[in-house]
Specification:
This is DUF1835 domain-containing protein. The chain has about 260 residues and is an alpha/beta fold. Helices cover about 40% and strands about 15% of the residues. It is globular, with a radius of gyration of 19 Å.
Length: about 260
């Protein structure tokens, strides 16, 4: 039986903020966990998203991958999310989609509207306003303080049919684009090569041995257009090592057990 209202968001942290701020049961919030800002999208909505699963298998270091796959193999989790979206029109009588300005949440918005493209159910959007804690103006639902969530929900605006159709069509275009990385700025999503930020990550590596976590943390705070995760930056660091641009010491399968320096 459909619920009266279903809130959609990207990631567990965002869901926790929404549930706590609005005192909602778990069933009232749908969590979409895939970070759509990075990696191939061509098969993401298929029954067997093998290419996308292979990408995430390569990105996550062993310890993170093992923890994530306690909930099932990547391909099975991604396929389950796609199946959930296929059934989305029957899941609720009305929908609220929460998003900030990062590419992952903006792509989640577009994917959700694509899933709802053939339904007349009311859809509203909650757009999180800029947070002074980030100088670049990027926003995310998880940044909301819980006491501010009711006020944020009060700003929810209906998504008119024209906007829903336009963003659903944009999702289809982006899914077929083939780009490895996606940015969101000023309302537009652009695609870029997967190594677009390698120079920025390399610039954070020092000549002497330093913890990999320190080298990864710097670009995480400066990259804009999407929220670069530690897993993504550490994966690119490993790719730089494979290219001979940096050296890794210790275990490359865990960020905490690894040090890095520029190749001498």
């Amino acid at each position: 039986m459909p619920v009266p209202m279903l809130h959609l968001c990207c990631g567990d942290s965002a869901a926790e903020v929404i549930r706590a701020g609005l005192a909602l049961p778990e069933t009232a919030v749908l969590i979409l966990r895939d970070d759509l800002a990075v990696g191939p999208l061509a098969d993401v909505d298929s029954d067997r998203p093998d290419a996308r699963a292979a990408f995430w298998h390569a990105v996550f270091p062993d310890e993170d991958r093992e923890a994530i796959e306690t909930g099932g193999a990547f391909v099975d989790q991604l396929a389950a999310e796609a199946a959930t979206l296929r059934g989305l029109p029957e899941a609720a009588e009305a929908f609220v989609i929460w998003h900030g300005s990062g590419a992952a949440e903006q792509l989640t918005l577009r994917r959700a509207l694509w899933a709802l493209r053939d339904t007349a159910a009311p859809v509203r959007e909650v757009a999180v306003t800029p947070d002074d804690r980030r100088g670049d103006g990027m926003t995310a639902v998880a940044m909301l303080e819980r006491q501010r969530v009711p006020a944020a929900e009060a700003t929810a605006r209906p998504a008119p049919a024209e906007r829903r159709a336009a963003l659903a069509a944009e999702w289809e275009r982006l899914r077929a684009d083939g780009g490895g990385l996606r940015h969101h700025r000023d309302g537009a999503i652009t695609t870029h090569p997967i190594d677009a930020h390698d120079a920025e990550i390399l610039a954070a590596v020092e000549d002497d041995w330093t913890p990999a976590g320190r080298a990864v943390g710097r670009p995480m705070g400066t990259i804009t257009g999407f929220f670069a995760t530690d897993a993504f930056c550490f994966w690119r660091l490993r790719q730089l090592a494979a290219q001979g641009k940096v050296e890794l010491e210790g275990s490359p399968t865990t960020i905490r057990g690894c040090r890095v320096r520029r190749t001498r």
